Fold:
Amino acid sequence: MRNCTERNSVEDFSEVMALQDRTKISLAAQYDDLCRYNRVLTMGCEKEFIDFSEIQLNLKRKLKQTEDKIQELKKRNTALEIEKRKHEYQINNSKKRK
Structure:
């Protein structure tokens, strides 16, 4: 079994154990889980969370920019399709007149 120096800082071992199904998880695995939970609670993960949040915000900005660009291109495509049909109509009319 690994040595866990943080085990004294967990106030209620029974609460953590209640989250586990004791019939399926060995005592060593439960102890490892307890040590891992304690490390997360004592060391925190604020930096990772901030990094994750910044990445998500950047992705949302890029998504918005991409969606705006798609809308712009759809409008331009529609305008070009209308212009194309207009020119095709003029070509067909000029052929019929000849």
Remarks:
- The chain is about 80% helix and 0% strand.
